[in-house]
Automatic annotation (TrEMBL), chains A, B, C, D:
This is Nucleotide pyrophosphohydrolase. One of its GO terms (molecular function) is dCTP diphosphatase activity. InterPro entries: dCTP_Pyrophosphatase, DCTPP, MazG-like_dom. Residues 27-94 form the NTP pyrophosphohydrolase MazG-like domain. GO terms for biological process: dCTP catabolic process; DNA protection. Gene3D superfamilies: MazG-like. GO terms for cellular component: cytosol.
Amino acid sequence: MYDLRELTEAVRTFNRDRDWEQFHDAKSLLLALVGEVGEVAELLQWQPAATVREDVKAGRLHTRLAEELADVLLYLVMLADETGVDLGPAAAVKLAATAQRYPASKFRGQAPERQ
Amino acid sequence: MYDLRELTEAVRTFNRDRDWEQFHDAKSLLLALVGEVGEVAELLQWQPAATVREDVKAGRLHTRLAEELADVLLYLVMLADETGVDLGPAAAVKLAATAQRYPASKFRGQAPERQ
Amino acid sequence: MYDLRELTEAVRTFNRDRDWEQFHDAKSLLLALVGEVGEVAELLQWQPAATVREDVKAGRLHTRLAEELADVLLYLVMLADETGVDLGPAAAVKLAATAQRYPASKFRGQAPERQ
Amino acid sequence: MYDLRELTEAVRTFNRDRDWEQFHDAKSLLLALVGEVGEVAELLQWQPAATVREDVKAGRLHTRLAEELADVLLYLVMLADETGVDLGPAAAVKLAATAQRYPASKFRGQAPERQ
């Protein structure tokens, strides 16, 4: 299921079936997302930066990481739906704006300074 | 752009054009995602839970929230791509597993206990 | 143990005894802190905003919350120590600066706008 | 100001003077803490793991990091106060429990697996 609208629809059905929308105000959903991001962090925190790519692509860490990243996406989809944000177009617009702000010709190979 | 594969491809091109993949180890991308989640939190933190839905759907907060949720998605897509996770199917699998774990007949109207 | 210097010293000893300083670069410690913040979020996410104070002050949630907030503090102390930040004075300086930025006479009863 | 009780008292006075306790339910304070953790993440995300220690200890990054870690501590103190958690003793108890769980003799030099 690659389509964000389909995913949104599936998540809506899931929640409607359980009458769980009542718990899903924006702040609670954001905290749930924070919880899932925390689980990703727990998987990666002690991995050496130099070998994390290889470690992740093989074995158990990969499976668990897939589950946790999925959870992050699911809560992100719920939070966007709750707040009326159309996530796909919003990402496309943001990517285009960022491309303009950091022209490839000027920023090639340079990490963008935050702030 | 609703298709997660298309979005992944667009983000790859964006980063390749700037030679930014070199900065994108999993731990750095996760911290970038944490930074964006933090910006969503700053938008919502003092909103009264009771009125956040209305406040978000009108005016300035909505625009900014769309931008920040977009950023979360963009870094999530990069992190999944870096770690070889296929985000769409992973979310579908997780949703199906969660549906089994919490049957609608048993959990209707009950917030799932964590832990 | 209320003194942040004492706590820092105790944490140093704990890590030195286990030879764990080697894992404690700033980015890894920050991810560990994110993981603990995520656990706090999982405890609070579905609590109704209106009753969380009472729910927390009684029973099991309180014990678990104390443990998770303790973990956040412990990693914060490690991160500060690793990056050479003297946490107590830094907090005092920041509080004084914030007090100047938001004079009580002008901001009484008004949530500070972020941004 | 190294004493967590003194810091708690200073933060209470700060908030009472501005009548800001009304905004400080646990979920809102946690989101504020998440926002500050996000700012720390933005400072560290693109720093190469190998040189972050040196980069942090010199110059501008250090000053900003001190400010952001201070903010994390301030919100942590507020969240603990709001939820009736005595942060210093809780940290001491947790450190002692962790020391028992991971005896130095057995875990020396081994990163603890997060489950």
